[in-house]
């Protein structure tokens, strides 16, 4: 058995429906801004209970648009040290300074005390990452912090399609949310992104920036823009994937429930423990090895058994390009990420694959713990 870390989900009936609709796109001759883009944007606005959805080339372009709109250039942006590289590079590309904040290992989101410590009179915005599709139970504190300091709150919901907390969807908790449709994500368009917001002016700005900076009414160039559009082909694939998002989430949640049952008696691990009203999207299912365990060796030994096991991400400041952002006081992010063991998780994972992955992990952990 060779069990990958992730695999996109295109069941046969979905593939048939997509092919029929791609044919319609080609016949229509309208390759951008057509019915499929509009439908995908509506699907995301409805799901996130926001006023506007703007389909984009990637989530990173959504981050750049949100950052530029909020006027961060010359200022500082708070970013969790447990985030994706473009959460940092987008800030730099928009002319601002990323300030890394430590994370709370129970939620993988901001450590609230460090957040307070890092805010200065130059801070303009916050990128709040729902890492692995988990919305922090402390979300109200994060919202209150942003409001208290008058900071623009950007949700990076790239992992959090359909995640909910207290009946509130990811993407509706800040001033703007961005989702990624990269191949590994909960749903995919090949690659692509979506920005959601209640702010009509931001929606207009995003629509202008994705089309070379054109004014939507006059067609004049009013911003330094780019081609950040999602074309109709990808939007068509997205519409079909989004129609099945509830099924995708149900399958992933069932897989995680099974993993949680199987690891019940293991003493060397910690798992996230969502409250009853927290429904993660489970982009990944990480468990966290105790400090005494060599997590890198565990991941390697899983690989030797042909079972993929990865860390969530390296801490951003351990990437060569961002080493200058390293500083004392990010140890909880470093420890959470470096001790993370992400088990295989994808929409069509079978019970046999889950059982084999969990069994291999338990055996290797016992070896590493020397029992
Ligand atoms: C948390 C997070 N944010 C942003 C991105 C970037 O997404 P995209 O490739 O759509 O720009 C990723 C991609 O993996 C991600 O994991």
Note down, in words, how this protein is organized.
39% of the residues lie in helices and 15% in strands. The protein is an alpha/beta fold. It is globular and about 70 Å long. The mean pLDDT is 97. It has two domains: 12-101 and 110-243, Type I PLP-dependent aspartate aminotransferase-like (Major domain) (Aspartate Aminotransferase, domain 2, 3-Layer(aba) Sandwich), CATH 3.40.640.10; 246-369, Aspartate Aminotransferase, domain 1. It has helices at residues 12-28, 35-47, 59-69, 85-93, 112-118, 139-148, 200-209, 232-243, 245-262, 295-304, 331-338, 351-369, and strands spanning 52-56, 76-80, 97-101, 123-129, 152-156, 164-165, 168-169, 176-180, 193-197, 269-271, 278-279, 285-289, 340-343. The chain has a seven-stranded mixed β-sheet with strand order 1-9-8-5-4-2-3, with helices on both faces. Strands 7-6-11 form a three-stranded antiparallel β-sheet, with no helix packed on it. A three-stranded antiparallel β-sheet has the order 10-12-13.
Give the helix tally: 12
CATH architecture of the largest domain: 3-Layer(aba) Sandwich
Helix content: 25-40%
Through-space gap between termini: 26 Å
Q: Indicate the CATH topology of the largest domain.
A: Aspartate Aminotransferase, domain 2
Q: What's the order of the H and E elements?
A: HHEHEHEHEHEEEEEHHHEEEHHEH
Low-pLDDT runs:
none
**Tally of individual domains:** 2
Ions and ligands: pyridoxal-5'-phosphate
Share of residues in strands: 5-15%
CATH class of the largest domain: Alpha Beta
